[in-house]
Amino acid sequence: MATLRDIQRRIRSVQSTQKITRAMKLVAAAKLRRAQERILAARPYVNKMAELLGNLVSAADGAEGSAHPLLEQREGPRRLIVIITADRGLAGAFNSNVLRNSLAFVRASNATALTLVVVGRKARDFYRRRPYTVKRDMLGFWDRLAYSHACELADLFIAQYLEGEVDEVHLIYNEFRSVALQRPVRQQLLPIPRSEGAAQAAGQPVEYIYEPSAPAILSELLPRHVRMQVFRALMESLAGEYGARMTAMEAATKNAKEMIDILTIQYRSSGPSSTSNSSRASCRPSTTRCSCRAWRTRTSSPIRRNSRSRSLSTSARRTSAPWPWRPRTA
Amino acid sequence: MADQLTLEVATPSRFVIGEQVDEVVVPGIEGYFGVLPGHAPLLSTLGIGELTYRIGRDERHATVSGGFCEVRNDKVIVLADSAELPGDIDRARAERARDRAEQRLTGRSSEEVDYARAAAALARALIRLQVAARAQ
């Protein structure tokens, strides 16, 4: 049976866990807000870019000559897959959703014509344990995510695509639906899907003066469009990570509270009533010297067993702090 | 026809300028060009340079590098890879970038040099310093 001291220790342990989960939740909430602001800040650029792209693609369609290589549909089995996860866990199903989704797609692809690029430590670790070669990984930049990271990543596979080493480029990441909802999505980056250009070209085409020329502008625009898609995916993934962590840590904090409540009830009902005849000291074991000794000799807790020397110092520190869950009768 | 232009400058990371202006001078890839109200639709790529816009008699400057400029219906929209107002410019950093690029171009450093990149870096640094100097 759990003794009073066992319950006390459990309560304390859960309390310190709760402190951590609550702090993580607050940090995630603050970072989430910044990440969301960045997505909003990029929106004017994204929208205008999409509009320009629509105009230019429809203009280029009208003109004769071959389409730009980034738009050209190729028949080929060679795929490059970019998988974006977070560096860290403790974010609910955030990482595992994307990884599960990506693994299904990777398995469905032709294994001999497959190139993997992973972003985030979780994706790297996941594919390192599996029989796939990872061509390139990007880690540890999430805290200072900038457009240049997106450019680096995008230029890598644009170059490979233009050199004809791959025929398709796909991106798998967590889309930021809302704070509580992230959804893994797969997006084809290259060749740029026709629909992305055509859908935007609403209304009559504008007769522009092109400087230097429409094809020249298009070939400047398309790589930037791809870079921006990557940047958006990175930003959404980052916001999604914080959203998922916030939700997960909020649930954990709530669970910890429930657990503390239950344990406190247990402590109170088994505490003063069952030991009503004993001295007050036994109701407050944490303040007595003998509790120190008891702590030292006890080996029942599996976590403490391996770090006895450390538990000594922590127990000494803890005994000096007043026990907040003192029974009211004491 | 409006008697003013709407100028909007956006980069991938933020919206930099949104103002009613009387005149804009844009660093196009083939040289600077001026835009006044009533301009014909124009689409140009940007070089590295100084964007100048005038509100009444007040002339203001900003740096831009790489991207596009669209002129349409008295609206000038600049989508730049990077754009900075004079207040955003870190002079010390620009000076360091200039010195580094100069060193690379004059071949005094031993490393392998990508000349196009170094030249672009030098141009960006010089424009930043120029715009920062104008603000003072």
Sheet bearing the most strands of chain B, described?
A: 7 strands, mixed
What's the number of structural domains of chain A? 2
CATH T-level topology of the largest domain in chain A: Pyruvate Kinase, Chain: A, domain 1
Structural class of chain A: alpha/beta
Counting DSSP E segments of at least 2 residues, the number of strands of chain A comes to 6
In CATH, what is the class of the largest domain in chain B? Answer: Mainly Beta
- Give the N-terminus to C-terminus distance of chain B in angstroms: 36 Å
Query: What do we call the CATH homologous superfamily of the largest domain in chain A?
Result: ATP synthase, F1 complex, gamma subunit
CATH class bucket of the largest domain in chain A: Alpha Beta
Q: Which architecture of the largest domain in chain B does the CATH hierarchy give at level 2?
A: Sandwich
Poorly predicted segments of chain A? 275-330
Low-confidence stretches of chain B: none
User: What's the average pLDDT of chain B?
Assistant: 89
Separation of termini of chain A? Answer: 23 Å
Count of separate structural domains of chain B: 2
